[in-house]
Amino acid sequence: MTRYVAFLGSINVGGQRLTMAELRAALEAEGFAGLETVVASGNVLFDHDERPTRGLEEKLEHLLRHRFGMRSIAAVRSRDEVAAAIADNPFAASGEANLVHTMFLESDADPAQFRVLLADHEGRGPERLALGDRALYIDYAGGVGSSRLTAPFLERRLGRRGTARNMRSLARILHKFDETKMDEDQN
C-alpha cells in the first residue's frame, strides 16, 4: 500500500458541509485505509494500492458527488509531491507561511493560459504568481481575505480546477507523512 494525501476543495465552505467522521466512514467503505484527517478542511491522508493519482482523484470525486451530492476537486499527491510543492514554491523562503500557497491543479496548466492570468491580474493586487508541476504558486502578500485573486478567477483563466493550501498546512501534512513512516519503521 502507498500513502497519499487528498486535498479536497470546497469542503466545509459555501454550504458544502461534511464532517471528517462522515468522510472517513465513506472512504473506509470504499477500501481506503489508514485514514487520517489533518485540519477539518479536507486534507485526508490514506493508504491505497499504488495507482496513478488521477485515478484516485476520479474515485474520490465520484464518491463525494454520489454519496454527499458535493462537486469538489480531489487533488491527490504522494509524500514526495507534497515535499516538492513546498520546496519548488519560489515564494516559500521570502513570504509569510500563512500567505504563501500552493494551488494544486487537476492537471498541468498551459503556459499561454498562465500568461493570460498574469496579464488579467496585473494591477489587481500585490500577489505574486508562478507556475509549477500541476500547481500554481501564490504569495498573497496583502492577505488572503482581502485579495481579489479568487479561486474562480484563477480557474477560469487557467482552465483548470484547483484547491490551495498554505505553507503552514503543507508542512503539517508533510510532518504527518513522516510520522507515519517513522511508526512503520519502528514496527
TrEMBL record:
It comes from the Bacteria. Gene3D superfamilies: SP0830-like domains. SUPFAM superfamilies: SP0830-like. InterPro entries: DUF1697. PANTHER family: BLL4334 PROTEIN (PTHR36439), DUF1697 DOMAIN-CONTAINING PROTEIN (PTHR36439:SF1). This is DUF1697 domain-containing protein. The lineage of its organism: Bacteria, Pseudomonadati, Pseudomonadota, Alphaproteobacteria, Sphingomonadales.
